Amino acid sequence: MSASGTDLVLQRLMSLHPKIIDLTLDRMWRLLEALGNPQRDLAPVIHIAGTNGKGSTQAMIRSGLQADGHRVCAYTSPHLARFHERIRLPDGLISEQALMDTLEECERANGGVPITYFEITTCAALLAFARADADYTILEVGLGGRLDATNVVDTPRLTIITPVSIDHQQYLGDTLPQIAGEKAGILKPGVPGIIARQQDEAREVIEARAQALGAPLSLAGQDWDAYEDQGRMAYFDEDGLLDLPLPSLLGAHQVQNAGAALATLRALGVSEAGCHAAVTQAEWPARMQRLRTGPLVAMAGERDLWLDGGHNSAAGLAVAEAIGRLPERPLHLICGMLNTKDVGGFLRPLATKAQHLHAVSIPGEAATLRAEQTAEAAQAVGLTATTAATVADALQAIPANARVLICGSLYLAGAVLRENG
């Protein structure tokens, strides 16, 4: 397949900075100024940080707002199959032509000086959002919070911090309080913050930062809560109780993500019908997603095929819990991970659930962990493991009656979604 015009622009933008990640806001401020400061012209902003659950939470918020008749822009990363997924306008994903035009406008304004790929593409998203007819803008942090390229809006309408855990230590710090401090960097003076349930060390840092800024917090377990009750979801806050179906996204962790989404929607005055839609209508690919059609599904035959992009220890626990909710079948994993991740931490919760792990390298990803290394890490936590050249090869080696979970990386999930059409 030949490269599109957008692909060619994105390839050029990748070469503007020697590092993929270089956390500072100086380059953002420079380019935004050259573009006329589009971040000042956005519809009211909902800014989301956290280690796990950002994407699912924003998908539920978006579903609830749209069900209530609001027009919503949303920015998320990384994309899975196509870059366009990162920039969602009120009428759908940004078009090929609009994306290419916006990227080229940012490229011209940047003038060839160093800027990271994420920074310049975030500027493009902000420019597109500023020109859209929208009621709300949802910005999902890419990495951390304090120095993330999305952290350029002086006064968002709300900030949200989903559960914080250990991840990206090379950029955010080695301890939970350090990482929580980076996430808390999105809090703003006087701006309400919705805080999901946190470990004590993380919550204390977030609360201290909020107090220093005068940012009022709405805390899970204190000001609102969400839990599963007899096969349904209960949510309550000072405005009363909501009795809802379990989230369409699978797993106990999605009940907590739904709680943060509902706390946000209630703060924005969304109707009970909108809250119901948030829980029941949200879709978010590669989060315990069952694949039902496509070439890989056809190849799977009677095998039950699932896909998840989680990649840290907290995600491993969440995936293991979600798998336990499904009707019992022999579980086989097809796993590929990046060399920056805690492979053992992710796989350990799954070791008691799976009969076998088939390790693959992530196609086209320079930072992939080699399949042999993933297999060794799996064996170290008690999983029987072998390697396979491709996901398709692994799938064909799995018994026909099995449940298959493809997991370990959003980059692997993206490759699978592209292969599956």
Automatic annotation (TrEMBL):
Q: Note the InterPro entries from the entry.
A: Folylpolyglutamate_synth (IPR001645), Folylpolyglutamate_synth_CS (IPR018109), Mur-like_cat_sf (IPR036565), Mur_ligase_C (IPR004101), Mur_ligase_C_dom_sf (IPR036615), Mur_ligase_cen (IPR013221)
Show where the Mur ligase central domain sits.
48-264
Q: Which Gene3D superfamilies match?
A: Mur ligase, C-terminal domain, Mur-like, catalytic domain
EC number(s) given by UniProt: 6.3.2.12, 6.3.2.17
Pfam family membership, one: Mur_ligase_M
Cofactors demanded by this protein: Mg(2+)
Reactions performed catalytically: (6S)-5,6,7,8-tetrahydrofolyl-(gamma-L-Glu)(n) + L-glutamate + ATP = (6S)-5,6,7,8-tetrahydrofolyl-(gamma-L-Glu)(n+1) + ADP + phosphate + H(+); 10-formyltetrahydrofolyl-(gamma-L-Glu)(n) + L-glutamate + ATP = 10-formyltetrahydrofolyl-(gamma-L-Glu)(n+1) + ADP + phosphate + H(+); (6R)-5,10-methylenetetrahydrofolyl-(gamma-L-Glu)(n) + L-glutamate + ATP = (6R)-5,10-methylenetetrahydrofolyl-(gamma-L-Glu)(n+1) + ADP + phosphate + H(+); 7,8-dihydropteroate + L-glutamate + ATP = 7,8-dihydrofolate + ADP + phosphate + H(+)
Report domain Mur ligase C-terminal positions: 302-409
Pathway, per Swiss-Prot/TrEMBL? Cofactor biosynthesis; tetrahydrofolylpolyglutamate biosynthesis; Cofactor biosynthesis; tetrahydrofolate biosynthesis; 7,8-dihydrofolate from 2-amino-4-hydroxy-6-hydroxymethyl-7,8-dihydropteridine diphosphate and 4-aminobenzoate: step 2/2
User: For this UniProt entry, what's an example GO CC term?
Assistant: cytoplasm
What's a BP term from Gene Ontology annotated to this protein?
tetrahydrofolate biosynthetic process
Which NCBIfam families does UniProt cross-reference here? folC
What is this protein's function? Answer: Functions in two distinct reactions of the de novo folate biosynthetic pathway. Catalyzes the addition of a glutamate residue to dihydropteroate (7,8-dihydropteroate or H2Pte) to form dihydrofolate (7,8-dihydrofolate monoglutamate or H2Pte-Glu). Also catalyzes successive additions of L-glutamate to tetrahydrofolate or 10-formyltetrahydrofolate or 5,10-methylenetetrahydrofolate, leading to folylpolyglutamate derivatives.
Name the protein family: Belongs to the folylpolyglutamate synthase family.
Stated name of the protein:
Dihydrofolate synthase/folylpolyglutamate synthase
Annotated source species: Pontivivens nitratireducens
